[in-house]
Amino acid sequence: MVLEQYFLLLPEFNLNTIRVSNNPSGSAAKPLFMYNRDGSICYYKSTKQVDFVRTFGIHKVTFMKHLEQGTYYLNKYLFSMEELPNAEQSDMTVEQVATMLDIDRVTNNKNKTLVSFSVAVTLINIETKEEHKFPSLGTAVKFLKNGSYPADQRTLVKRINTNIPYHGFTCHKY
């Protein structure tokens, strides 16, 4: 306690000397860019991450993941800290880019499974070699039940990639 009082009362000691990394004001920040998948069009650039988060509704964790790993956001957009020399600046407004992202989110989310741990499977008929692809085990079980088979999801899980027949089908992840 005495040490705290000493530092608080000492006039030349400054407690506000913390340097903020990635300064949110953008004064010392590196520029960030949003390109199309092949990097030929630059849709947006800013020195602040918060602009991408607030303006376009991209979650900060999602933004950082795609920025750091170099993966494509919505399988279409590339975030980068480097300016690509051959990229042309888009003439779209910020509102148009935000609308484009909203439309792509709806389209992309329709193609996703509802549960992140869902397993996409293929059932292959042993006799005809006909393949039936399903986005989840549940839909594969419904298919088997509609074919008058007493199907069970637990048993189907055990048969994935084992080549053990289940009601005339083999089950594989895809």
Descriptive report:
With 174 residues, this protein is α+β, with helices and mostly antiparallel strands. 35% of the residues lie in helices and 19% in strands. Strand 3 and strand 4 form a beta hairpin. The protein is elongated. About 3% of the residues have low confidence.
Using the alpha-carbon principal axes, give the shape: elongated
What integer value in Å does the Rg equal?
26 Å
Give the number of domains.
Answer: 2
Give the topology string: H per helix, E per strand.
Answer: HEEHHEEEHEEHHE
**Total beta-strand segments:** 8
List the helices and strands and how they pair.
Blueprint: H1 2-9, E1 32-36, E2 41-46, H2 49-56, H3 60-69, E3 72-73, E4 77-80, E5 88-89, H4 94-111, E6 121-125, E7 131-134, H5 137-146, H6 153-159, E8 169-173
Parallel strand pairs: 2-5
Antiparallel strand pairs: 1-2, 1-4, 3-4, 6-7, 6-8
Quick take:
The chain is elongated. With 174 residues, it is of the alpha+beta class.
Task: List its salient traits.
alpha+beta, 2 domains, three-stranded antiparallel sheet, Intron_nuc_1_rpt, intron homing, Probable intron-encoded DNA endonuclease aI3, nuclease
